[in-house]
Design goal:
Bound molecules: ligand BES, magnesium ion, zinc ion
Shape: elongated
CATH topology of the largest domain: Aminopeptidase
Strand content: 15-25%
Number of strands: 20
CATH superfamily of the largest domain: Zn peptidases
Oligomer: single chain
CATH architecture of the largest domain: 3-Layer(aba) Sandwich
Distance between the termini: 29 Å
Largest sheet: 9 strands, mixed
Helix content: 25-40%
Length: about 500
């Protein structure tokens, strides 16, 4: 799908299957706006207002067939509700719903008229939000559908504006938002891919392909290099599968200042059966999406490289399949991780932290300014926060707040949970430095505490670190607006917004 912009002076000259006009729902404004439109289509608007009682309430819409003086055959009036109450998310939802309405008409392109700006919002981000909602609403994982159900999708979204001054600004937003949305779809596609289509090696190949296309570097370690380097967690978790593990390193240097290295770590379990601590059959299929963190890291680095952001990003992706094969990791096993720390495996289904531990310990070598790991780590985060908000934990107040702010703008929201020392007791082991299973309660926190034990060097100095648990937000059962059921790509817009606003 492609997004476009165009200047118009007369709405009648816009040539599109459907023109969508956003209308504010507060009464005085509504009357004023509708009078303008009535000038164009007096009879139609009169009739419709009488029959439908349309008042531009939030999410209400009405379809009008135009007359011969218009190049476009249809206009959709789309209600936004009270102007004072709108935020960027209101516009994402409104443009998404407008497009979903358009799908019912079986048409292929839609043109939005740029609405005038509500107080407190800026034009750039408003434009971005309209594009995001529209673009992302049209995603469906249909690579493997051979039937013709694919056809009812929009191919072209246009934003039309009628002030020539806006041209450059709106065009630059368009170019960047197309890049961003492409990245979100890459993350969704990779996550949705079933495990027989996306094993660790294939994931590495996607990374190579992206790096080659967009001018950054991807290095891939095979199982021998992983073993030799001492990534005990990745070796152990991958050992029950016929598909060997991979370790993927992405490098994008957009800033000459080496001190600005930001490391992103993504959990890349291409399938999580639970291993010998086998999961129940119910919902096990969802675990093809247990590499969503890895997908976010790859998509974010790709996006940053294409946008040429002035940051240095290093993506680390430990990738393997968690299976109960003959040589699988067993409960009770003790693992030696990169850097030398050991862990006791009390439950093979708590595998994510075992592979992240190696990557986090390895991150020291990169002298990072900040390390962010993102992972579908615990079912407990779903109990705590459901599917709308991800958990964020870390050791740096300022960066947590910055990511929270990015979350409020993008609506990929995060909520902080504490990492108090008292929780350490819950992952204490008698036989190793840490245990991968916490005692009862605070499952999100004990998982993060496990990770935290790998972020300090020999002198006990920790780097700045943030952990984001996306188990609830990456995988969506019931889709709505611009996220349909399946993988959401949650995290890409969040991280890009964080990077764009804080590293200029
Ligand atoms: N991949 C799962 C977490 C998960 C659950 C992701 C639901 C998405 C949806 C993770 O590897 C896991 O199995 N965690 C266990 C940990 C437990 C054994 C300590 C869990 O949450 O049950
Ligand atoms: Mg698991
Ligand atoms: Zn898992």
């Amino acid at each position: 799908m492609q997004i476009f912009t165009s200047y118009f002076s007369d709405i009648k000259d816009i040539n599109s299957d459907l023109i969508t006009i956003f209308l504010y729902g507060n009464n005085r404004l509504f009357n004023k706006q509708i009078l303008e439109i009535k000038k164009l289509l007096p009879e139609e608007i009169d009739r419709i207002l009488k029959l439908e009682k349309f008042r531009a309430e939030s999410e209400s819409s009405i379809l009008i067939y135009t007359n011969k003086s218009f190049k476009s055959p249809r206009i959709q009036l789309f209600g936004l509700g009270a102007k004072e109450k709108l935020n960027y998310e209101s516009f994402r939802k409104a443009s998404a719903l407008s497009c979903l309405n358009a799908n019912k008409l079986k048409i292929h392109n839609i043109t939005f008229l740029l609405p005038d700006l509500p107080d407190g919002l800026n034009l750039k981000y408003l434009t971005q939000s309209i594009f995001e909602g529209a673009f992302l609403s049209q995603y469906k994982f249909d690579k493997f559908l051979t039937s013709t159900q694919k056809t009812n999708r929009l191919k072209k979204i246009t934003l039309a504006y009628n002030s020539k001054k806006l041209k450059d600004e709106i065009n630059s937003v368009k170019v960047k938002t197309q890049i961003l949305c492409d990245a979100v779809l890459l993350a969704r596609d990779l996550s949705n891919m079933p495990a027989n289509q996306l094993n660790p090696d294939l994931l590495a190949k996607y990374a190579k392909k992206s790096a080659k296309s967009f001018n950054y570097k991807a290095e891939v370690w095979d199982e021998n290099k992983i073993k030799k380097t001492g990534f005990g967690g990745l070796v152990a978790v991958g050992s029950g599968s016929n598909h060997p593990p991979r370790f993927i390193i992405l490098k994008y240097y957009g800033n000459k200042n080496k001190k600005m290295n930001i490391v992103l770590v993504g959990k890349g379990i291409t399938f999580d059966s639970g291993g010998l601590s086998l999961k129940s059959a119910e919902n096990m299929a969802e675990m093809k999406m247990d590499m969503s963190g890895a997908a976010v890291v790859l998509a974010t680095v790709q996006c940053a490289a294409r946008m040429k952001l002035p940051v240095n990003l290093i993506g680390l992706i430990p990738a393997c399949e968690n299976m109960p094969g003959g040589s699988a990791l067993k409960p009770g096993d003790i693992i030696k991780h990169y850097g030398g720390k050991t862990s006791e495996v009390a439950n093979t289904d708590a595998e994510g932290r075992l592979i992240l531990a190696d990557a986090l310990a390895y991150a020291h070598k990169l002298k990072p300014e900040l390390v962010i790991d993102i992972a579908t780590l615990t079912g407990a985060v779903i109990s705590a926060l459901g599917h709308h908000v991800a958990a964020i934990l870390g050791n740096d107040r300022t960066d947590i707040d910055k990511i929270k702010n990015a979350g409020d703008v993008t609506y990929e929201r995060v909520w902080e949970l504490p990492l108090y020392d008292e929780y350490k007791k819950q992952i204490k082991s008698e036989v190793a430095d840490v245990r991968n299973l916490g005692t009862r309660g605070a499952g999100v926190i004990t998982a993060a505490m496990f990770l935290k034990s790998f972020i300090s060097d020999k002198n006990k100095k920790e780097y700045k670190w943030i952990h984001i648990d996306i188990a609830g937000t990456a995988i969506i059962d019931e889709g709505a607006y611009y996220i349909q059921s399946g993988a959401s790509g949650f995290g890409v817009r969040l991280l890009i917004e964080f990077l764009r606003t804080n590293f200029k």
